[in-house]
Amino acid sequence: MDPKNLSTNEAEFLGTFQKLPSMAQLQAEQPKEAPKEKPKPEFEWATRCRILRKLADGGMGSVYLAEQIGEAGFAKTVVLKLIKADRLQDQKATRMFVDEAKLTADLVHTNIAQVYNLGIFQNRYFIVMEYMHARTLTEYFKKFVSMRQLPPTDMSAFIVSRVCRGLDYAHTKRDREGTLLGIVHRDVTPSNIMVDFRGAVKLTDFGIAKALTMNMPDETKVIMGKFPYMSPEQVGAQATDPRSDIFSLGLILYELLAGTHVYNAKSRPELLEMMNKYRIKDPRKIVPTLPDQLVEITMKALTRDPAKRFQSAFEFGDALEQYMYSGGYGPTNEKLAKHLMELWPEVDRDKV
Fold this sequence. Notes:
CATH architecture of the largest domain: Orthogonal Bundle
CATH topology of the largest domain: Transferase(Phosphotransferase), domain 1
Number of helices: 12
Strand order of the largest sheet: 1-2-3-5-4
């Protein structure tokens, strides 16, 4: 990692980790017998997450590739999401960062990125997350734009159906006492969907999700989300429920099928005007060869009235699966993995 790319605070923070011994040193120095004295807590905790390199920057925090280190040379590749130094004085931002970790801690599902731990070091919170050798759906779509092609319809349907599974799990999740958590993601966007080179599809970043257990800003006063992927309820400052996420995912499916945004808005007034004045164009007018059944599913997810949409992510995903598999053998994780390796042949999926 180039120190020139880091802020002063980041450099100081990461400097602590860079001084730590390498894995080879740790293995070489491993005693044959258990040490008589425990390591100092600060050192022991710091070595649990040694940063390797920066992966990305977001509005709330920076994301790093890291190693979670244990005894006897144990090392697990993870992702570290570190709250930005300039957000430390923002209590609201800090609370949202912490709430994301707490909310997703028990969301254990194959189509949701796993959160392992929430920690704090030198007054800065960080989240330890599952590492995925993957691309975002944004990168996936841009790959086809660069080739002047559209993604295969079966792969688009498959990817969205797997996000439906993750959403349905989150929407119906209950706490240990059996109380429905009432989770709504509110940020279902291509940048928050990962496609792994082993064929897994995972929804990530619950940073602005809401739940009944969380003290979130009033939706009628604070608009949260990204304009091109907001539901009518979100942009209209109305209370959201799981059907809002279904609309957002429908926008993503439409984009994959037609190669264009439904709403290319950059402001709330612009988006409100688009939603109020214009009907969503049938994607077959853009791509005439699209399967009728798949278009019908897409347009149902995009019904303006929530009562006329799919009423659950399960129902949305089930419709997609009936479309994909009613004729026999359809897309699988293995087919998606092969498809991704054809798009990125230079990637060695066995290397971090």
